[in-house]
């Protein structure tokens, strides 16, 4: 694929969406690639007030506007649903104001509540619009936008069940540059990463992550492991790097402080990890939720992986994501209801089986899409060329 059709000059682009790291990270990766090609291009993000993107996007160096918007509670009796019509009207009005003032040439949605009003208003004004769908099962916002946008950049195959097939380009999921760089990991990067998290080079590391929002069952499983280690006063043959989620961090730290671990056992508990390249570099084995962006990053990183799909996501899409890897031999699967009792056993078995580690690594690396961000931006350029 020719990654740079060019001819068009991008000067003003809006990228909208967020809510979780799985939407924010590909959005920033797309923005970074646009800036790489068009250094003078102005990029404005539009997110939802009070959500993670309002903090993370400015840290990545981009301005952001917030809409007063949220989804419909699955409990239809919830009083929060009474506010939804007012939030939607408010967001449509503000989205229109943002578009009139900023005058974007192009609007890109990455999923999440904010992208709905913004892309709807952009499409009404005849502005070229595109969405980047990360999951094997699209979120409700992107499904509602299916017939409004001109381009769908798909992270997984098979999305023609929900989107017009002629508008779909399978690009993979865009990844941040500091993650794509880990594909060619030098020995000194692992040494630097271990020092960053204060681990010894003498012991391997299991990286356990529950996604940007954290995962209660995985957190419970790690605490169960810690309590078992303390009870036996016998360290595991590996240390733990544990990303528990910002909302759980204070509680998990307090619980861990009350556990008397053997001196040689290290468990690092962090709410959110900004330097994921360091986390992946430090890891020898990884246990993770099966969000779309985690899957894309794990394929690129190529470390032996145990996936624990979340059971509380729309249409069980994390299990579908996970099976896209496990069916090719690229990951092991552990169900959420088994994770508390079986996480330590599964990790220890994997650490003790170098041949299985090698088999998983080889299959996993075969599914990587390191140029996804470039492919998305090339598709956006083609869309702009067709519109002019």
Give the helices and strands, then pairings.
Layout: E1 12-16, H1 21-37, E2 42-48, H2 53-59, E3 64-67, H3 84-102, E4 106-109, H4 115-124, E5 129-133, H5 140-144, E6 151-154, E7 168-170, H6 177-180, H7 187-196, E8 205-209, H8 216-232, E9 239-243, H9 249-257, E10 267-270, H10 276-282, E11 285-288, H11 292-301, E12 305-307, H12 317-326, E13 332-333, H13 339-351, H14 354-365, H15 372-387
Parallel strand pairs: 1-2, 1-4, 2-3, 4-5, 5-6, 6-7, 8-9, 8-11, 9-10, 11-12, 12-13
Helix pairs in contact: 1-15, 3-4, 7-10, 8-13
Discrete helix count: 15
The major beta sheet can be summarized as: 7 strands, parallel
Would you list the SSEs in sequence order as H and E?
A: EHEHEHEHEHEEHHEHEHEHEHEHEHHH
The number of domains: 2
Summary keywords:
388 residues; alpha/beta; Rossmann fold; seven-stranded parallel beta sheet; 15 helices; 13 strands; 43% helix; globular
In short:
The chain has helices at residues 21-37, 53-59, 84-102, 115-124, 140-144, 177-180, 187-196, 216-232, 249-257, 276-282, 292-301, 317-326, 339-351, 354-365, 372-387; strands spanning 12-16, 42-48, 64-67, 106-109, 129-133, 151-154, 168-170, 205-209, 239-243, 267-270, 285-288, 305-307, 332-333. It is of the alpha/beta class. The two termini are 22 Å apart.
């Amino acid at each position: 694929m020719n990654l740079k059709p060019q001819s068009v000059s991008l000067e003003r682009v809006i990228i909208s969406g967020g809510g979780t790291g799985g939407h924010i990270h590909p959005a920033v990766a797309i923005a970074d690639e646009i800036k790489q090609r068009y250094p003078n291009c102005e990029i404005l993000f539009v997110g939802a007030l009070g959500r993670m993107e309002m903090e993370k996007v400015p840290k990545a160096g981009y301005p952001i506007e917030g809409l007063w918007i949220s989804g419909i509670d699955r409990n239809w009796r919830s009083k929060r649903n009474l506010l939804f019509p007012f939030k939607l009207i408010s967001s449509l009005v503000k989205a229109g104001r943002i578009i009139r003032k900023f005058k974007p040439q192009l609007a890109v949605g990455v999923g999440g509540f904010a992208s709905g009003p913004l892309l709807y208003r952009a499409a009404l004004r005849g502005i070229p619009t595109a969405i980047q769908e990360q999951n094997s099962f699209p979120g409700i916002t992107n499904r509602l936008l299916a017939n409004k946008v001109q381009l769908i950049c798909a992270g997984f195959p098979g999305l023609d069940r929900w989107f017009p097939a002629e508008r779909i380009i399978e690009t993979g999921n865009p990844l941040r540059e500091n993650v794509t760089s880990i594909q060619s990991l030098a020995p000194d990067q692992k040494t630097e990463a271990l020092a960053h998290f204060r681990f010894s080079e003498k012991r391997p590391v299991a990286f356990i992550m529950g996604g940007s929002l954290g995962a209660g069952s995985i957190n419970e499983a790690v605490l169960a492991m810690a309590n078992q280690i303390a009870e036996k006063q016998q360290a595991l043959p590996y240390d733990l790097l544990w990303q528990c989620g910002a909302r759980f961090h204070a509680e998990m730290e307090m619980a861990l402080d009350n556990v008397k671990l053997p001196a040689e056992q290290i468990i690092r508990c962090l709410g959110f990890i900004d330097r994921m390249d360091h986390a992946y570099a430090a890891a020898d084995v990884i246990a993770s939720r099966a969000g779309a962006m985690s899957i894309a990053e794990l394929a690129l990183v190529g470390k032996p992986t145990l996936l624990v799909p979340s059971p509380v996501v729309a249409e069980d899409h994390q299990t579908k994501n996970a099976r896209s890897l496990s069916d090719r031999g690229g990951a092991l699967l552990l169900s959420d209801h088994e994770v508390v009792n079986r996480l330590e056993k599964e990790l220890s078995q994997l650490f003790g089986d170098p041949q299985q580690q090698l088999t998983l690594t080889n299959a996993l690396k075969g599914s990587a899409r390191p140029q996804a961000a470039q492919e998305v931006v090339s598709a956006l350029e083609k869309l702009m060329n067709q519109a002019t």
